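S2.1 Query sequence (Proteoglycan 3-like)
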Amino acid sequence: MFTLLLMVFLVGSVSAQTIGEDYEDDCDAQENTETSLQSEGNSEECQNISMALDTTAYPKIGLGDERCYYRFFSCSTNFYRAQKWCRHYHGNLSSIHNINTNNFIEHFVSRVNRHVRFIWIGVRRNGWTCPLRNVDGSRLDFTNWAWGNPKNFLHRCTALNIRNGKWYSFHCCARLPYICTIRY
Ligand SMILES: *[C@@H]1O[C@H](CO)[C@@H](O)[C@H](O)[C@H]1NC(C)=O
Ligand SMILES: *[C@@H]1O[C@H](CO)[C@@H](O)[C@H](O)[C@H]1NC(C)=O
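Output structure tokens follow.
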């Protein structure tokens, strides 16, 4: 049994390396991510709350004419697993294309959870020297960096500070709550 687990783990890390990117394996190599994805979802303290963005009040959300809603998850997890959860709900970690959407997310999250400070949004550098990108493939046409950000090297993922709406670079293995954009 132990040998089998070890084999699975070794195969897993080799394939992650061949692709040349880092994955959640780097964050917690011993855990089987599929299993822990299940158990995290069943955790009762996890709050996840959806809210549609009123497209009449916020005409341009950056997804063309498609209607979407935002879903906030209060359980802290690393960037990769957060994005996996968003995909599970047929969405992505949120991209933000203007200050209105930035404000909307800031106010929505602070209203539903007054303790949260940083949340993952879908902006990431694939490698140290790569440009920042939105994980949903849309153009990174708006940013709201805090002073001294974005950082490079080890801080390749992005979190929004709910207290001031500014963006900060984080290590992708940091564990934070997160927000997904999901299409209807
Ligand atoms: C989100 O909440 C629903 C119930 O509203 C629950 O069934 C689901 O497991 C939760 N998902 C996560 C990732 O916490
Ligand atoms: C999520 O991102 C993928 C690309 O990574 C894209 O094809 C898909 O349309 C996105 N979904 C949403 C709801 O934005």
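The chain has five helices and eight strands. The mean pLDDT is 79.
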